Every structure is written in C-alpha cells, then in structure tokens.
Amino acid sequence: MIQPFAIQSPTQIFFGRGELERIPDILGQERLREGAILLLTDRGVSPFLICRYVVLDPLATLGLPPELTGSTGLDALCHLLECYISKKANPYSDLFALEGIRLIFASLKTAFDNGQDLEARSNMLLAAFYGGVCIASSSTTGVHALSYPLGGMYRIWHGVANAMLLAPVMEFNQDAIPDKLERAAKAVGIEGDGRGLVSAFIQALEDLTRYVGIPPRLSAFGIEKKDIPELTSRAMEVTRLLSNNPKPISREEAAAIYERIL
Ligand SMILES: [Fe+2]
Hints:
The chain is mainly α. It has two domains: 2-49, no CATH class; 58-260, Dehydroquinate synthase-like - alpha domain (Dehydroquinate synthase-like, alpha domain, Up-down Bundle). It has twelve helices and two strands, in the order E-H-H-E-H-H-H-H-H-H-H-H-H-H. Helix 3 (66-85) runs parallel beside helix 7. The longest helix is centred in the middle third of the chain and has 23 residues, at 91-113. The termini are far apart. Residues 9, 12, 75, 78-79, 144, 158, 162 line the site of fe (ii) ion (FE2).
C-alpha cells in the first residue's frame, strides 16, 4: 500500500518518463500540490520513482527566490555531508560528497546574493545532483531524522529545518568522525590542522546558515520547551536514518539537540 510520507525536497524529486502521470492517480491532485514522498511501506521506494534521465538546466533555476535558493541549497549540503559521515558512506559516495560540499561552499552565497549568476546556479545544481547520487549509495543521518518532525508538525520548510540542525548535529557527531570533518574542512579551503579544523568547519556551517537567513532558534516558529518530548518521540521513530548516524543518538541526546536550538 502506498502512503504519503513527508514533505518533498526539491533536490530529491526523481521522476521517470511515463511514471509522473501515475502519481496524481495515486495521491490525488490535492495531495500532490502539498508535496509528498512516496514510500511503499512493504517494499521500500518503488522502482517506478527512480529516474531514467536527469536534466540539469541552470536556466530553469534563475528565477528561484533567495530564501528558496538558500534553504534548498543547504538541504543539498545536508545530503552531501550526512552521506559523507554516514555509516553507509563508501569510496564512491565520498567522491561525490566532497566535491558537492566544495561546490556549495564556493557558490551558495553568490547564488543567494545574485540569483542571475549562471555559474553559481550551475554549481549549485550540480552539487544538488551529487547529493542525490550520494543518497543512492549512502544515506542521510541524524540531521534529517531530527528534521522530519519539524516539517511534519510545524510545516517548517524541509531545507530550513535541516539547516537549523546541521551544525548542532555535526557538533554532536564530531568525536566519532574527526578525520572526515577535517577532510571536509580542507575541501572547502579552511586551513589549519587537527581539532582546529573540525571546529572551524562546524563554525563555517553555522556561518553559511546564518548568511542565507535561516532562523537560529526553533522559538521563531512558535516551538516551546513543552513541545520537545513530542518532537523527540517522533524523531526517534526515524530509525532508518538514525541507524546510519556515525554514533548512536539516545532519546535524551536528541532532546538536548532540540533544546540547544530552542
Ligand atoms: Fe533533504
């Protein structure tokens, strides 16, 4: 049975020729306008939703407003970085992940400031595509797991919710993946060594998030301390992603991450 699952991410839209027409039949027009990810609960993702062709046309992205450029760009960064530090990471996904992370650090600010900059738009499109390639062989992790309830319960844009959690979850994970965070830091041009590189990279994630106007606090969306237990319960249900996080996230630790950005 097919069930609507969550808000869709613009970087994760995979439609095959001929299959797109079937989706309105399955979901109904109203549901399709809201956006959804299809999950076949008994068999995983349907092969009919895997694309045969991908068209990357930066001209089609020129009119994207800055706030969508920023939030979708950071969602792509989450795909790349989470896949890079995932338990499912592999040499193939690492190649695309590091290059995608580099492209986003090189181009997101420019695309945000000047949506007509074709080179920046091209780089962002390519980076977003690389994120999709990574997800196909690796997986997102704690950031997306904790982000889903924010979208589901409070309708916070998927990219915004992920962006708010990106630096805090990497901070939580840093002890388990220092070498990977060091390599990511070097990939984006940060100089230094050891733990200095790691903390500088996490700070750079925070800075990029602020640059594109992502609110730093959940309270900006009316979320209060009393809401955290329910958020945490829902996040702990996303075991298919939590299980790929480089270190276990307990219920208490998930709640602490939400509280850190409350
Ligand atoms: Fe996403």
